[in-house]
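HIT-like protein (Glonium stellatum), 193 aa
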Amino acid sequence: MNELDQDHYPQSCPFCAIASAYPPTTSRSLLDYVPKEEDADPDRIQPNAFVILSAPDVMAFLDILPMTNGHLLVATRTHRKLIGDIEEAEGREIGFWLPLLARTVAKVTGVADYNIVQNNGVRAAQVVPHVHFHIIPRPETMPEVKNKSWTMFGRGQRNDLDEEEAVKLAGDMRSVLREELGRPADGDSKGRL
C-alpha cells in the first residue's frame, strides 16, 4: 500500500473543536447564526478561533495560517472527511453561505479577486481531514512565492494570524455579513434559510 493511502491525519479535529465551542442556535433567523461580539470570544478554544458564522450545518472562521489578509475557512459543522461524504442538507447550506461569505470577504478586505478552494485527501493538499472551503482574497500586490501551484492550494509561504488584527477583521466580517443578510435577495430568502 502506498504511504499516501494511509490516514496521516491527527487524532483530534480542530474544526470539530471549534464547532463544539460554538454550538448552533435553535433560532431560524439567519442573523442569529452570526455570533454577537460578546459571544464571539476567540479565547473560548485553543488555538483561538475567530468565528464569523455558526449555522446549523456550516461554520466560518479565519484561517490561523492565512495566505492573505481575510483568508476565511467555511467548514461543515459535522465531521465529514471528504466532499463526497457530506449530506444533501449540508451541501445546500454550504451553497447558500459561500456567495454571502465571499462578498463579505471582498467588502471587508477591499479585494474583489479571490479563490475558493476545496481540497480532498492528502494528495490534494488537504491538511485538516474535515471538509472545508478556503476563500482567499488575491490582492493586486502579492508576495513573491517560489512554488506558486502548491501555495495556491494551501502549501508554501503562510504567516501566523495576528490576533489583534484578527479580532478587528472578524468583527468587521460579522458586521458586513449581517448587512449581507439584510439585503433583499432573489427569491425573497431574506432572514431565512
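The radius of gyration is 16 Å. Residues 3-182 form a domain with the HIT family, subunit A fold (CATH 3.30.428.10). ok done for today
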